[in-house]
Automatic annotation (TrEMBL):
<dbReference type="InterPro" id="IPR027417">
    <property type="entry name" value="P-loop_NTPase"/>
</dbReference>
<dbReference type="GO" id="GO:0016887">
    <property type="term" value="F:ATP hydrolysis activity"/>
</dbReference>
<dbReference type="InterPro" id="IPR011703">
    <property type="entry name" value="ATPase_AAA-3"/>
</dbReference>
<keyword id="KW-0067">ATP-binding</keyword>
<dbReference type="InterPro" id="IPR041628">
    <property type="entry name" value="ChlI/MoxR_AAA_lid"/>
</dbReference>
<dbReference type="Pfam" id="PF07726">
    <property type="entry name" value="AAA_3"/>
</dbReference>
<dbReference type="InterPro" id="IPR050764">
    <property type="entry name" value="CbbQ/NirQ/NorQ/GpvN"/>
</dbReference>
<keyword id="KW-0547">Nucleotide-binding</keyword>
<dbReference type="Pfam" id="PF17863">
    <property type="entry name" value="AAA_lid_2"/>
</dbReference>
<protein>
    <submittedName>
        <fullName>MoxR-like ATPase</fullName>
    </submittedName>
</protein>
<feature type="domain" description="ChlI/MoxR AAA lid">
    <location>
        <begin position="260"/>
        <end position="327"/>
    </location>
</feature>
<feature type="domain" description="ATPase AAA-3">
    <location>
        <begin position="54"/>
        <end position="184"/>
    </location>
</feature>
<dbReference type="GO" id="GO:0005524">
    <property type="term" value="F:ATP binding"/>
</dbReference>
<comment type="similarity">
    <text>Belongs to the MoxR family.</text>
</comment>
Length: 334
């Protein structure tokens, strides 16, 4: 009897998700007008948006990172702001400050660029720790305090931070504890040759297609609620926990050879974000339940910045990616 009930439930959840996720295809099609290829990045942006998380993008300059989030904010009826992080930036330049108004003989509040639905923090590793922590606090608390007043940030609120892996001189790398605040860390690759040919043609023509707002903020907020209802079986939960625990105690999972390579494993934030991202991925694929493939699809983006590698691993050229691959290949799929 129980099975029959749960089958009916899943069918109704599936119907609801199918209905609520109809906009995903429209949104993707709208972004494709400007963004050539980069399907992985666009999908990850949607996962961040639906999962109410934030994204750290790493890639060499010129891979359309800024363009992608700008296009997303145009396709969704949202506000967009870009903060170029530089070594002389101050926290007030991000969150806002109190300004003395001589006429009123009082202070008035000038809100900073963080007050937008989509915030691009360009080259986050260029600014000092004080500025980084001001941004990360706003990301975590979804609120900002200026003077004695506290302001809630607009919903939905998505921060996409980029970092350039090439030049490391004069940069302030994000500490592990701060990197952990990002739901996903996505590494962007170069486009395929055929895609780059299309990029050249579009640029030489100089006429880019107009991106129209095709999704309302209300639809996004409804979708964020709907994502929570995506069904996740206990077996999938166990699968997620096994993957995360294998980053902490590899010896318990027949992976003793990883022990000397891992400095520290993923935190409970890793488990939460892996479960959330898997639900979002299922939602994007217009399914009302999570399958193991959803977990495998997002596991690298969720965990690559949460595993600390030892000097020994660095000496052997082993990356956190390699460690995730070994763990995913070893752990039994439900």
């Amino acid at each position: 009897m129980q099975d029959n009930n749960s089958a009916i439930d899943i069918a109704s959840i599936n119907e609801k998700i199918e209905r609520e996720s109809a906009f995903v295809d429209i949104l993707s099609a709208e972004m494709k007008k400007v963004i050539v290829g980069q399907k992985h990045m666009v999908e990850r942006l949607l996962i961040g948006l639906l999962g109410q998380g934030h994204i750290l993008l790493e890639g060499v300059p010129g891979l359309a990172k800024t363009l992608a989030i700008n296009t997303l904010s145009k396709a969704v009826h949202g506000s967009f702001s870009r903060i170029q992080f530089t070594p002389d930036l101050l926290p007030a330049d991000v969150v806002g400050t109190l300004i003395y108004n001589m006429k009123l003989n009082d202070f008035s509040i000038k809100k900073g660029p963080i007050f937008a639905n989509f915030v691009l923090a360009d080259e986050i590793n260029r600014a000092p720790a004080k500025v980084q922590s001001a941004l990360l606090e706003a990301m975590q608390e979804k609120q900002v305090t200026i003077g004695e007043e506290t302001f809630m940030l607009d919903k939905p609120f998505l921060v996409m931070a980029t970092q350039n892996p090439v030049e490391q001189e004069g940069t302030y790398p994000l500490p592990e504890a701060q990197v952990d605040r990002f739901m996903l860390k996505t590494v962007i690759k170069y486009p395929e040759m055929s895609e780059e040919q299309m990029i050249i043609r579009a640029n030489l023509k100089g006429a880019f297609e107009q991106v129209n707002p095709v999704v309302s903020l209300e639809q996004i907020l409804r979708a964020q609620e709907a994502v929570r209802e995506v069904y996740m079986d206990e077996k999938i939960e166990k699968y997620i926990l096994d993957i995360v625990f294998a980053t902490r105690f590899p010896e318990k999972y027949n992976l003793e050879n990883l022990k000397p390579l891992i400095n520290f494993g993923a935190s409970p934030r890793g488990s939460i974000n892996l479960a959330t991202a898997a639900k979002c991925y299922a939602f994007i694929k217009r399914r009302g339940y999570v399958v193991p493939e959803d977990v495998r699809a997002v596991v690298h983006d969720v965990l690559r910045h949460r595993i600390g590698i030892t000097y020994e691993a660095e000496a052997e050229n082993v990356t956190s990616e390699d460690i995730i691959n070994k763990i995913v290949n070893e752990i039994e799929v439900p």
